[in-house]
Amino acid sequence: MTAPLAEMKNVSIAFGGVRAVDNVSIELHAGEVVGLLGHNGAGKSTLIKMLSGAYKMDSGEIWIEGNKATINSPRDSRDYNIETIYQTLALADNLDAASNLFLGRELTTSFGFVDDSQMEAETRKIMARLNPNFKKLKEPVSALSGGQRQSVAIARAVYFNAKILIMDEPTAALGVHETAMVAELIGELKKQGLGIFLISHDTREMMELCDRVSVMKNGQMVGTERVEDVTEDDILSMIILGKNPKEAA
Amino acid sequence: MSDTPNAQKRPFLKSLEIDTRLLGMIGAFLLVCIVFNLLTDGRFLTPRNIFNLTIQTVSVAIMATGMVFVIVTRHIDLSVGALLATCTAVMGMTQTAWLPEIFGMELGHPLIPWITIAVGLITGAVIGGLQGWLIGYQAIPAFIVTLGGLLIWRNVGWHLTDGATIGPLDQTFILFGGISGTMGATWSWVIGIAATAASLLALWSGRRNKQKHGFPVKPAWAEALMMGLVAAAILGFIAILNAYTVPDRVIARNPSLYGCETAEGCVAAYGLPYSVLVLIAVAIIMTVIALRTRLGRYIFATGGNPDAAELSGINTRLLTVKIFAMVGVLSAIAGVVASARLGYHTNDIGTLDELRVIAAAVIGGTALSGGLGTIYGAIIGALIMQSLQSGMAMVGVDAPYQNIVVGAVLVLAVWIDIQYRKRVGAK
Ligand SMILES: Nc1ncnc2c1ncn2[C@@H]1O[C@H](COP(=O)(O)OP(=O)(O)OP(=O)(O)O)[C@@H](O)[C@H]1O
Ligand SMILES: [Mg+2]
């Protein structure tokens, strides 16, 4: 079997006294969607932020495609073709959609100046695919609705041909129709061979979209199961009790 | 968007695509000018007074362009006036003492002014960069670092000069002072026409670029009107400056300077001062940085959401160092202009400039909450402040009352801006 696309081995991080992530291991293969579930404050966001370079882990290792990786900053993570949709979206509210989409990777003209027209044209193209109703290209994103902002964050993650996509509650603010479009997008990207970490509180949705689901509680990994091997109730009891019923059995 | 049916319905100003804030600021400026012109029986809007207003504004306006970046990233710089003083002290000492005494260059050596300016700019960059490092990498609030800087740098300047006034300054150096260095009528027209051509070309290529990508453009008449306004503004400004002629008694001192054989019947205009040319160059460079470079994009992104900027791979600490170093360089340039204008370095040069500079940026629409601000706004802000001050002085308002008015105007300007933003729903 080929090496996993991404593998986090025994990673831990603590904030002050809080062990936000405690000795967690998780892996992701190409063409696979792995879901992360757990209570508020379970450590899901913190775990993936170590992969996306937002936090530096205290201990543990990250392996990308079979090689040990050093990720100390968001830039390092991008260099490994990891793209992240943060729970907070991480948009600069005062800038328009195109500036946000290309933030940190602006397209430039041959003189080295930022090429706003080119970026706007690219943004129009990708938004037409993700959210055809999206028209507010000139406005600062602070003038957008929660769902529209989320579309911008999603567009930013999928535009740059990621190999690994991290989506932290990408549909939290989306309407039914837009959520369905994101589900479709996830399926499409999966077919293209991307590996996706998906975080959501919607257990049913996760059972549909994911190949495997991992449940966290209090910074620890409760268990990882293939979705066809478990029921929604099994997952719920893992989240609530913090024990894997199959292991107990 | 289908252009034809909508075109007539679009309001006039919308078709022009002029920023209403810019319009408001220009309106406020014109209002101030007209009121003072009435109060002074037409003495306010004479070529002579407009010329003076312009050169008095330059030093503060140069620093205000840098203050925009500082405030946009949610910082403040209280040290610019003091930094200016240290830079002019260093430059004063360089040209009058250090270069002649240590390096044996005789006074008046043609390289002295240029070496001096280079030394001044480096001093500004290093001090500014140091403050930026303390703020960015050591996480000391900018307010504290630059409040300390306010006390430190003014008195480092005092120490360097033993508290003495330094001068007279180099003859070439003082050309940057304003009335002491102007281009005369012909060259002013040359520059004015070149600037007009460049602006029209920029507008036109901007339109072409939009069309290339299939984006909507303004109607042709609106574009033509814009071009006409820009050309009229630039050439009108040059015409006004050129209308201010050198007084006869000054020409009588040395008619050959003004291209005349004798003082009799000799008419010469001052024209565009070099200091104003410096301000225009600074304004263009800073605007290009703000709107057309990654650096500018990162400055605004960081101001809008520092965490998002960080997560997008922007090194916000280094960015802080760069911004404060830029302000340092601009303070040094402002120092060149200010000391050249006086002809000397004095201990109290630039005193209270930090407040004028911050006020100019804020009156010009820079939001202290970060992420919003324009270079042109800061310059117009500086102009409004200077017009108020000069106008009140001409009317004969006592200095304490002048300060009361300026203070009230500052608060009022910010209040109007807040109301305006609420109305249009922008943040
Ligand atoms: N920057 C930080 N500083 C201090 N503590 C933090 C920080 N980030 C997270 N924590 C703590 O780490 C724990 C895990 O937080 P995390 O954001 O990973 O939870 P989560 O599983 O994503 O929850 P949610 O479902 O609410 O998004 C929480 O107890 C939180 O308070
Ligand atoms: Mg979370």
Your description of this structure?
- The complex is a heterodimer of chains A (249) and B (427).
- In chain A, helix 4 crosses helix 5.
- In chain A, the strands form two sheets. In chain A, strands 6-7-8-3-9-10 form a six-stranded mixed β-sheet, sandwiched between helices.
- In chain A, strand 4 (59-64) and strand 5 form a beta hairpin.
- Chain A is an alpha/beta fold and 249 residues long.
- Chain A has one domain: Rossmann fold (3-Layer(aba) Sandwich), CATH 3.40.50.300.
- Chain A contains nine helices and ten strands.
- Chain A has helices spanning 44-51, 74-79, 97-101, 116-130, 146-159, 176-191, 203-209, 232-241, 245-248, and strands at residues 6-15, 18-28, 33-37, 59-64, 67-69, 82-85, 164-168, 195-199, 212-217, 220-226.
- Chain A is globular, with a radius of gyration of 18 Å.
- Helix content of chain A is 34%, strand content 25%.
- Chain A starts with 5 loop residues before the first strand and ends with a helix.
- Chain B has 427 residues and is mainly α.
- Chain B has two domains: 17-181 and 276-426, ABC transporter involved in vitamin B12 uptake, BtuC; 182-272, no CATH class.
- Chain B has 17 helices and no strands.
- Chain B has helices at residues 3-9, 12-16, 20-39, 47-72, 80-102, 112-136, 142-160, 184-212, 220-243, 248-253, 274-292, 294-304, 306-311, 316-342, 353-363, 375-395, 399-424.
- In chain B, helix 8 runs antiparallel to helix 9.
- The two termini of chain B are 26 Å apart.
- The structure holds adenosine-5'-triphosphate (ATP) and magnesium ion.
- Residues 15, 18, 20, 38, 40-46, 87 of chain A line the site of adenosine-5'-triphosphate.
- Adenosine-5'-triphosphate binds at residues 15, 18, 20, 38, 40-46, 87 of chain A.
